[in-house]
Amino acid sequence: MSQCAACGKPLTLEIDLDEEDEYDQDATASGTEVPDSVELSQCLLDAYEMVQCPNCSKDVSSHTSSGEEQVLCNLENEGGLQEGFDVLPILKEESYLKAFPEERRCRAFLEFCAEGDVGAILDLINSEEDEDATMSSNEEAAAKPIDVLRYQDPMGSLSSGLHVAVSNGREEIVWLLLFLASSLKLSFFPPNVLEAARTLGATREEQTGKIDIRILEDSNHRTAENLAQQLGGIWEPWIQSECLRPVIDGILPIV
Q1: Rounded to 5 degrees, what are φ and ψ at 62?
Q2: Which one in 4, 31, 85, 231 has a CA-CA gap of 20 to 30 Å to 248?
Q3: β-pairing, 152-153 with 80-86?
């Protein structure tokens, strides 16, 4: 069995199983071990912290034809073997989260927006509210919690969850974010969206004094509406309805 070059431990990961899991034939009472290995042509170790490997002093990166830096590897886990996988974005994210661990929840939120996972978003928001409710006034003052719904990705062109949902074609997420973090009147929401919100237990807070998520711009000065205009397709009806139109102090901008 392969071992980690840094700590000598087996390159496996124990996962929990259920009765439908494909690894049942190798299961123990509590779970099973699956490969969790990253194989590079040279050492990885702490490559996400420096260009040269601290173990062998060799550069683990390469460049694409367009000049972008990449770290190619063979990645083997419970999903199988992926050859030529660029692990650099993951390493950069992990390095960032080591410095700013308080943003881990926010980055999970953006992933859920990209995947279209309504339930996961609501679970995350509800768990955040539960933590806020149990936090003392002193802890709350010191923590300065991040507004997950209005978080903008510093590693992803300052995209908000609304930008991510639009770019990934997730209409159900766009409706959810408009319900939770905009001043869009309820009369604009389709009845089935409002019914789904009630069924899932989504609650709309008072938006007075809060930033309307439609106002947020990415690093290219694009609102989610601008992005939708560029993409077209399923977003054409949205552009016509002006549901994504940024609203400042309750006034639609003149365009």
Answers
A1: -140, -175
A2: 231
A3: unpaired
